[in-house]
Amino acid sequence: MTTLADSVAWIGGHSVHVPDGPVALLLDRLGDYMYAVSAVLWVLVTAALLWAVFRRRAEGEDPNDPARERRMQRTVTLAVAASAAILFVFLFLSYDTSRAMTGRPAGEPLQIRVTGHQWWWEVEYRDSLPQHWATTANEIHVPVGRPVVFDFRSSDVNHSFWVPQLGGKRDLIPGQETSLWFRADTAGVYRGQCAEFCGYQHAKMAFEVIAEPPPRFAEWLVQQRDTAATPTDSLAQRGQLVFVTSPCVMCHSISGTTAGSRIGPDLTHIASRRTIAAGTLLNTQGNLFAWITDPQGLKPGTRMPATQLGPKDLAAVVAYLETLR
Amino acid sequence: MSSRCPERRWVLGAVALWAVTLGGCERERRGFHDRVPGTPALSMVRQSDLQPGPRTADAAVPSPYDDNAYAVSEGKRLFNQYNCSGCHFQGGGGIGPPLMDAEWIYGSEPQNIFATIVEGRPNGMPSFRHRIPDQQVWQLVAYVRSMSGLLAKDVAPGRSDDMQVTAQEQQTTKEHPVKSAVPPSTQRP
User: For residue B132, what are the contacts with CB-CB under 8 A and spacing of at least 6?
Assistant: First the structure.
């Protein structure tokens, strides 16, 4: 039962039919309009087809009557003209919608840089002061009611950024910058997903957009800018030592320690995130153990190699990661 | 016979084409859980011809990935991500020795390269023991060997994900490795 409830809640955070914010509303309206018009046309076309199939020629009707032929010609011409007109209306409406979506939003937007990697999302909040930069992964916090402008990059192959409930899709293309904006008007958690096939674990390349009231967002950002917490209890201290002397440091960084590699997700505030491995697992103690021990079993092909740590070292590393709020 | 029923030619052609395309299926296995020979198995690897007493036989350690294109491409990715190219550049050498030529100070056999990465070498090569997992070291070994054409052409990488700076490993002519007879310490002052 819980799984059913969970999946329903999950669909609630991932549906184009429950739009939030101006961009998603525009798209939803366009979609609804196209759907309604197409449904009416489908009914009409099907009715015409059925009528043609079941109609019988009247007694004494001449199939070669030129007047009849002209009538039929007129009907077909009208139908073709109507189709073309409807398609032009669709064209104009989608042009208008994409224009409204791609322009720069009014007000002072928040800038977020998102980089696609196989198979996770790097999220950077940049600032004119470099010491105010914050880096996180697979989780995008945004303030409610303020437009957010994303600029996208890719480090390897094409990806596509898509949050169904908040706005359109945009491809992340290596060597090219793309951008997109949206605004969340309701606080909540919105699920996002890579929408361009990008390799083996494309399906497990998800993220969450967490829309919060502006004061809470500001608080979160300040906390994310901080260097990592220094562990106080002995287990976590040992965990820190194990972390910086193990293969972890080849890919991950934790600010304030010697771990500074930028290949994998930044772990400075990993304990504050809801999921690990790009939305694959909830961020729980058990899942951290599982992920460090056997990432290839949970997400085959992921760039994270299995790390061979002794049980005590593993427990220490997990304890340390859990202090990184 | 064939002139009497030309359809038969088409059928045979289609079957032949189908058989050829089948060859593309399951070309190789992508090993995510491979058990590879680890560091302990390599503790006796000989790095030089110089040794006291009579010559002992080389311990043969099979390279798990010399025939696996996926592993070699992973090696290529890791070569840049782990900053091997920081010293060896794209194999042409600079701060560290070149990797695309025939000269191997510490041996060209897979186990020699493995030991070089894991143990480190004098004059700059750091030890990556407990830093790079064994499986990834073997992937790097296979890639490094592809740089001088020591792998089959259908295994060596055929394109780069980033801007191309050297000829593709696939197009590299095969070098014939020579072990340097000069003591390593005198090679790089």
Answer: A247, A250, B78, B82, B117, B118, B140
